[in-house]
Write a structure and sequence with these properties.
This is 3-methyl-2-oxobutanoate dehydrogenase (2-methylpropanoyl-transferring). By secondary structure, the chain is an alpha/beta fold. It has 25 helices and 22 strands. β14, α20 and β15 form a beta-alpha-beta unit. α5 packs parallel to α6, α17 packs parallel to α18 and α21 crosses α25.
Length: 800
Amino acid sequence: MIENNELAMNLESRLSFEEFRKEVLNDYRLACDSREISLLARKEVLTGKAKFGIFGDGKEVAQIAMSKYFQPGDFRSGYYRDQTVAFATGIATPEQFFSQLYADPDLKNDPFSGGRQMNSHYATPNLGKDGNWLDLAQMKNSAADMAPTAAQMPRALGLAYASKMFREVENLHQYKGLSNNGNEICFATIGDASTSEGHFWETMNAAGVLQVPLAVFVWDDGYGISVPRKYQTTKNSISAALEGFRKTEDSNGFDIYNVKGWDYAGMCEVFEAAIRKIRETHIPALFHVEEITQPQGHSTSGSHERYKSKERLSWEREFDCNVKMRSWIIENALCDEETLLAVEAEAKVKAQEARKTAWEKYITPIKEHVQSFISLATPLLSTAGVDVSMISTAIRDLQHNREPLRRDILKAAATILLKHGHLKQDPAIAALQQYYDEYLQSEKDNYNSYLYATGVNSALNVPVVDAAYDADSITVNGYEILNKYFDQLITNNPKVFAFGEDVGKIGDVNQGFAGLQQKHGKDRIADTGIRELTIMGQGIGMALRGLRPIAEIQYLDYLLYGLQPLSDDVASLQYRTKGIMHCPIIVRTRGHRLEGIWHSGSPMGMIINSLRGMYVCVPRNMVQAAGMYNTLLQANEPALVIESLNGYRLKEKVPANMETFTVPLGIPEILQEGSDVTIVTYGSMTRIVEEAMVTLAEMGVSCELIDVQTLLPFDIHHSIVESLKKTNRILFIDEDVPGGGTAYMFQQVIENQGGYRWLDVAPRTMSAQAHRPAYGSDGDYFSKPNTEQVVKAVMEMMQE
């Protein structure tokens, strides 16, 4: 006789097995779905419906196993082969995958980029248009993907570091929508070949030092496009090469796990325990997922048969993860052959349906515009004086085009309008012109919008509050202004964190944070290693999660180390996600005149041309800098603030409203009015020009001095041209190389603002020499603009 509890145990066991069987079958179903999507998507590229394709085939099972432990609140910082992760976590659907493949500009169809990024580049929103952060702790989150290899690694560090702060800083516990007590993990994925990049090594080292919940999955398929692993990685294994980083009982570091990409059960077992440990302990881990295959090769741009041996290709067919999982299911009697065949057949149908639906959503509005164009162009055929043959050809070409593009319609309309400009008063031509203008504008909104934030998130919409001074306001050194400001800021805004090289214990090299780590703690004001790239990444990840980091680059010259993530990630983020994701990082640095080649940098042309999408603030003094920080912290946009190196010990009055006054961005300030010459500059150069103006005034020349305050944005109300209308002479001065920042300002005023119309003499630019600044005071004198040069240039303009 069987006891009741034994019956219950048997029943529970049978139910558990049934649930397990269902889960395995669902996982296999997803693996098949993703594989069929890859196969079909490649065909769409090769037939011309899509421009380029890169897919995650061969990684399906590993990504499914990983995704089982991806929880709400977690962040993904991955790369362009993570389609199965996106499907498994619910971040994306197959239909959305195809919409992105077709570059559908409708955010309803491609909710990740609105057609602005290639396929498998995923993003989830983090901030609403109302300026409020979304409930990230209840969402499965994905930082917007990038194509540059290993570019996802620096910000992955920051996404994980934010969890550490949410757990350890008590004042952050109030932000329940941003974090669940820091339990969130950042899942970073990367191809094995990309681990050769410095980004990977710097991130792994920093993660081991900081001890943050970062789970790094390396998909190892043995090649970097065509280059075998043995030419990429020491010891032919990234996990073996990293062995010295392994955490031990008495050291920091990270855990290392090795799994096979085709071993479904083995991966699930390792990942479950390992991910739980990361979540609980915040000890990072590297998962080396080996023996991955790549059935379709690297991308649609080539064939892997060109560089893989027959033996390798045979092995890849045998160890294909879907094939191996299928065999494992059969061997363990989890499902019969007939059921699996049905699953595989169903996957083909589902992929076709997703493709068809996505294509119809993409092509239908274009075809509707084709019909609109034809309906407007056809009446032109009976209009006197038109080129009937040309118009007929344009109509016929669009009618016969099975896959028209928006540009085809616009080019056809523009060609007709240009050819018949003499008939612009004709009602039919006027109707086509109106259609063309409206359609062109709507598509510009589709493709050229959201470089910067709008509405309450925009720094340009922060109310202006002038600095106020009491009768007894004291005068102190510039660095003391910043020190007082940062002290109040850290005290009153728990989301603000400052970190960088020497920022903590000694309070930065120019004492802006002196004594503040001791007052506010090592979490709020932190020292870092010499690792500019991941200092930027640390700030990027924190900002993506709703914190307000001030990430410091010690000297502007070293911004080059951190420029890549700022350019490729931060500056393009709002644009490439069509406004759904924001990263309000503030990068603090110092530059311009000092001493020596690598401590006197002012590479503004490089910066403004690589950081479109960020604000670039160039304050001339520290009060102005504090006001800019206040402005930025009331908005949700990224910025670079470059303090003047030689301004820290200049005396300034302390504003009474230090916490609340703001400096408007994009609004130049007239420092001195004049009537003969307009001089446009910024930063440390304002003081050189002021010295020169004393001499010029003695010589009877009246100069109007304008400090642009910010280079991005630049003079949004076109106020500089108003000065030029008065003086009819203009000189642009800065410390960049010739053709750098001055050429940019020149173009903005003379071309964009139409300043050329008000010139009596040729406009001038004055910059530093083409070489790096030489060391010493004489080196500075001969390398950068000096007082005498300014006087000489102005006098030449007066005499011209």
